Amino acid sequence: MTVATSEPAVHALDELQYGLGEGPCLTAVQGLTTIHVPDLREEARWPRYAAAAWAEGIGSVLSVPLPLQGEANAALNLYSSRTNGFSGADIKHAEAYAAQVSKALRLAVRVTQLTEDRKHLTTAMESRTTIDVAVGVIMAQNRCSQESALKILKIASSTRNVKLRDVAAAVVATVSEDPELLTHFDT
Length: 187
Prior knowledge:
This protein has 187 residues and is mainly alpha-helical. It has helices spanning 8-20, 24-31, 47-55, 88-142, 146-160, 164-175, and strands spanning 35-37, 60-67, 73-80.
């Protein structure tokens, strides 16, 4: 997906690559290598894309990968209306810029992943607390073992097609004036 562009026509060209499954951006991302197309009229690797880009007034393209590590990658795409629109110095500058951007994006992706992991762990801890309390309620009501109580809870979840944590919350609500449970991780 294209995150940002400077021109609407450029956005359409990026989207065209995704639709066709070919183009300099996709090749740069997949191979983690800079792709320079000095003259789109002479480009044979992606004939449909090259023809469409030329028809939109693009003469040359430069796609520089932004390796983000893990499953995600991106690319910086530069378009010129002229053929041979990028010099060797332009390419080196774009690669240096992409290296810096890549570092910032990797950090942003990592922070986002850690934030998501924290949310998932918090939800899991809250669910686990509710389930544990519900197991205790069932143990007290039925004078059974923890294993048997958990089995009762799982059967209720399965037969009602309701998530285990939701069944557990319903059990807790039947014996508590305040069904909100605090984990020992809450502050």
